[in-house]
Amino acid sequence: MFSPQGPSLRELCIQALSSVERGYDLLAPKFDHTPFRTPDSFLGATADALSELGPFDHGLDVCCGTGAGMLVLRSVCQGGITGVDFSAGMLAQARSAHPDATWVRADARALPFTEYFNLAVSFGALGHFLPTERPALFEGVYRALRPGGLFALPIGAPPPLASVSHLATLGFDLAMRVRNAVWRPPFVMYYRTSPLPALRDNLTAAGFTVTAVALTVLGRRRDGSSRCTLILARKPADLTDAHSRTMSPPLVRDCVTST
């Protein structure tokens, strides 16, 4: 499951008993050698789909981690690209790998941007947000986008009920619920709390117009449906006053403190 450069079982246990922020600070130097990093095939399929909708100007990766999503933004954005994450350790790795990007430390539930970006993306982060926290996340992304801006969010299809993957994710989520019930600080990471209908509802409530594209290049399930869907949430264009606004650049300071 892990390469020799990845974390040991002891390191994973220490990280799992930490807060989300502290856990990722500890994992950061070895994160790219784990299965948790977004696969290149996933990134490539997203970039190909977005290339047909762009080009875009400024791009934002929400919960950027070590910066894998920068490969997508760089391929479709003509302006500056920015990553935001609340883990200082993950941002340090991202900054080292992509020194030409802008990096902002902030809580994604309170993004410090206003109408600056044309494109926002996020990869594999939804499990770190409870369903009650998603509205604040999506409202922040909506606020960060210019009128007409796009939020692209690829998600995998749920595994079949009789599959090993279904049982594994079910078992993982149950174990995390038990862990969080008996241990503090909590570590929020669940695989089964972000179904597509709920995401659509949350994005629509935030003001987005939501469509979806099947990323069939990543394979199909036995029933013929795609293994991965790219959610496309568009902020409505407001041509009346969009051109009269002065767009301010993203903040480039730490916006959260360790907890």
UniProtKB/TrEMBL annotation:
<keyword id="KW-0808">Transferase</keyword>
<dbReference type="InterPro" id="IPR029063">
    <property type="entry name" value="SAM-dependent_MTases_sf"/>
</dbReference>
<feature type="domain" description="Methyltransferase">
    <location>
        <begin position="60"/>
        <end position="149"/>
    </location>
</feature>
<dbReference type="GO" id="GO:0032259">
    <property type="term" value="P:methylation"/>
</dbReference>
<dbReference type="Pfam" id="PF13649">
    <property type="entry name" value="Methyltransf_25"/>
</dbReference>
<protein>
    <submittedName>
        <fullName>Methyltransferase domain-containing protein</fullName>
    </submittedName>
</protein>
<dbReference type="InterPro" id="IPR041698">
    <property type="entry name" value="Methyltransf_25"/>
</dbReference>
<keyword id="KW-0489">Methyltransferase</keyword>
<dbReference type="GO" id="GO:0008168">
    <property type="term" value="F:methyltransferase activity"/>
</dbReference>
